[in-house]
Amino acid sequence: MIDIQNVTKIIDEKVILKDINLHVEKGSIFGIIGENGAGKTTLIKCLTGIYKPTKGSIKIDGKEVFDKKEIKEKIGYVCDENQYFSSFKVIELKEFYEKTYKKFSEDRFYELNKKFKIPLDRRIRELSKGMKMRVAILLNLSIQPEVLILDEPTSGLDVLIKREVMKLLLDEVAARNITIFVSSHYLDHMERICDNVAIIKNGEIKFNSSMEEAKNSIKKLQIVFKDDKKVERELEQFNNIINVETIGRVKYLTVKNYTKDFENKLYEIGANFIEDIDMSLEDIFINFVEGEDKNE
Question: Could you tell me if 19 and 8 are in contact, meaning their C-beta atoms sit under 8 angstroms apart?
Fold first, then answer.
């Protein structure tokens, strides 16, 4: 559904994105995560056709996105700062969307607003950041998009509304088979809804896999060795160890590209006991980025 091929974006002679390659299947939720300034928002602006890639191509449903009205009609876009016409009332903004998007559903708009509880006679400038985000999500779900692109969609929302939004996204995929591309710093939310996730760092994709593969590839192991002093030297031979912590006689190893063969080698160098510790997406992200920093 979404194909990003060899995309590079240069702004003011600075390389913001470098040779990005991603594929997103129809009816899936794809998450992009990274530190501030890593290039997430620039990638999203290329994906929505706001920016034209300096090199490479971005296609949705087999067609280039940039400067293609018929493709943009299929896209819903919620950004982290929603700059709507500030003097418009919410109801007037709804009418604007209704005239702009052929598939806009008035019934869907009012159905969703029973949950979002947005006062329709209020002007946009009178709304809080969280309320503006609700308006953006409401409008972009009402256009019934085939692709929904979200940049920090829960920013400014309270806990209950965040949960409602996550449920709505899952319901949209289940009911209408839409494709969602989302960026967020709330990694616990991403972990619950994403089928696939990519890590971007300094404008490059450093990791890209399904959520299941991510948890199998990057692991934290709790290990007791026979000889602590000897094993320090032995561990230096492994280039897939991201981090080592020692608490008493127990060592905690965070590793990437984990395999059973690696675990067998740990037994060969003196491991008495190895236990796999569950890692959240946040744990995986932090340890992966720290490992990349050490290698730079």
Answer: yes
